[in-house]
């Protein structure tokens, strides 16, 4: 499961995801990619499940780049606990994804294989996505 080795703060505010992605909005490594179309938090387990589905369908040929990393701690209070008594302990790590962000990139396989592999990976994610390819 993905998580940072160290973090500056143990707990983070929930925050809101505003606007569109400007940083990771274009393909930099591969010929094909998976682009997010809506804002959402994607947790580490979902990223890993999508990556596994992607590499399994490609039968470990080609190369896969993951362009997201869960660096936000998400805390949760135990079930059936009354209000108050402070913030819950960190349960998992998440990544805030803005619309337009490239989530995964693929290269070294045909377009049909890449399209099907990225479709299977998108089924593991909680957001709507779009298949994109590099134009020469």
CATH architecture field of the domain at 32-77 and 97-133: Alpha-Beta Complex
Q: Number of helical runs?
A: 2
Subunit organisation of the chains: single chain
Give the SSE order as H and E letters.
Answer: EEHEEEEHE
Which blocks of ≥5 consecutive residues have pLDDT under 50? none
The CATH class of the domain at 32-77 and 97-133, by name, is Alpha Beta
- Helical content stands at 10-25%
Q: Report the portion of residues in β strands.
A: 25-35%
Mean pLDDT: 95
- Global morphology: elongated
Largest sheet, order of strands side by side?
3-6-1-7
Query: Main beta sheet, described?
Result: 4 strands, antiparallel
Straight-line distance between termini: 36 Å
- Quickly give the structural class: alpha+beta
How many β strands by DSSP? 7
Radius of gyration using CA atoms only: 17 Å
What's the name of the CATH homologous superfamily of the domain at 32-77 and 97-133?
Answer: Ribosomal protein L16/L10
Explained architecture:
The chain has 136 residues and is an alpha+beta fold. The chain has a domain at 32-77 and 97-133: Alpha-Beta Complex (Aldehyde Oxidoreductase, domain 3), CATH 3.90.1170.10. It has two helices and seven strands; from the N terminus they run E-E-H-E-E-E-E-H-E. The protein has helices at residues 44-57, 111-122, and strands at 32-36, 40-43, 63-66, 72-76, 89-97, 102-107, 129-133. The strands form two sheets. A four-stranded antiparallel β-sheet has the order 3-6-1-7, with helices on one face. A three-stranded antiparallel β-sheet has the order 2-5-4. Helix 1 packs antiparallel against helix 2 (111-122). The longest helix has 14 residues, at 44-57. The protein starts with 31 loop residues before the first strand and ends with a strand. The relative contact order is 0.32. The model has no long low-confidence stretch (mean pLDDT 95).
């Amino acid at each position: 499961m993905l998580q940072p080795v160290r973090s500056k703060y143990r707990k983070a505010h929930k925050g809101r995801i505003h606007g569109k992605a400007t940083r990771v909005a274009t393909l930099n490594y591969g010929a094909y990619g998976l682009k997010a179309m809506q804002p959402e938090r994607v947790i580490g387990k979902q990223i890993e499940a999508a990556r596994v589905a992607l590499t399994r369908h490609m039968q470990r040929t080609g190369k896969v780049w993951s362009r997201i990393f869960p660096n936000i701690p998400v805390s949760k209070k135990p079930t059936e606990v009354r209000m108050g008594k402070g913030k819950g302990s960190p349960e998992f790590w998440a990544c805030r994804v803005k619309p337009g962000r490239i989530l995964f990139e693929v290269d070294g396989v045909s377009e049909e294989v890449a399209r099907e592999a990225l479709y299977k990976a998108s089924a593991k994610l909680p957001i709507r996505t779009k298949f994109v390819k590099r134009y020469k």
